[in-house]
């Protein structure tokens, strides 16, 4: 997988603000759906999901990494990702289709999921715990045709009347649930905001450019509760521990790989090379560039 970009995008908000001519967006009453069609042999980055995301691949490949998990989503497949997580992605088109990548993203807020669960009579929250954060499922030709029928709405968003996006989204969810017995249960679990292990959250996102605020949110805690629980485990503040852990990782990468200072900076969660170099020198007593200089004869 290509190295992820250093800038973390919070979606759907960031994508809505920075959409290019290759992306079409439907927005209504807090709901968002995005269609993207482009040609690429490989583009990567990091996303922080503010809402639950349902992504359908119509052409090409969309790869998702979450910690040690790797999920590859191809044509005629969909992926459901719960909110409040940071993921890395890689987008690529198939060589035999001129590297075309075409997909649709639907962002599901808790109130939409709640309404669907009530209408669909889905299992109760208390039925079970431990549902996967990311799940990939196949989609059949009938559902694929339904997705294609939605494309005109993206091309003429000004003609979409009030409430239609929500109706179409609920219709889509029912179409999936009709073909996938476990989908309703997954959605019933998706709306839960359970606390996660601080160690798991921090270690999973150590290389991602996320803030302490983001980590608190990912863990299901308030900022003050996150800092208190973190100090009880690590006996220091989150900011200091994370900075030191990232610098230790950067030093190891610079000493034992061909990565440049800039690449090591972004690979370890820093977003500014100058800030990274100053912090590195303060901790180790020499600049990161010293590890890339050839030894004296």
UniProtKB/TrEMBL annotation:
<dbReference type="Pfam" id="PF12833">
    <property type="entry name" value="HTH_18"/>
</dbReference>
<dbReference type="InterPro" id="IPR018062">
    <property type="entry name" value="HTH_AraC-typ_CS"/>
</dbReference>
<feature type="domain" description="HTH araC/xylS-type">
    <location>
        <begin position="196"/>
        <end position="294"/>
    </location>
</feature>
<dbReference type="Pfam" id="PF22200">
    <property type="entry name" value="ExsA_N"/>
</dbReference>
<dbReference type="InterPro" id="IPR009057">
    <property type="entry name" value="Homeodomain-like_sf"/>
</dbReference>
<keyword id="KW-0010">Activator</keyword>
<dbReference type="InterPro" id="IPR054015">
    <property type="entry name" value="ExsA-like_N"/>
</dbReference>
<keyword id="KW-0805">Transcription regulation</keyword>
<dbReference type="InterPro" id="IPR050204">
    <property type="entry name" value="AraC_XylS_family_regulators"/>
</dbReference>
<dbReference type="InterPro" id="IPR037923">
    <property type="entry name" value="HTH-like"/>
</dbReference>
<dbReference type="InterPro" id="IPR018060">
    <property type="entry name" value="HTH_AraC"/>
</dbReference>
<dbReference type="GO" id="GO:0003700">
    <property type="term" value="F:DNA-binding transcription factor activity"/>
</dbReference>
<keyword id="KW-0804">Transcription</keyword>
<keyword id="KW-0238">DNA-binding</keyword>
<protein>
    <submittedName>
        <fullName>Helix-turn-helix protein</fullName>
    </submittedName>
</protein>
<dbReference type="GO" id="GO:0043565">
    <property type="term" value="F:sequence-specific DNA binding"/>
</dbReference>
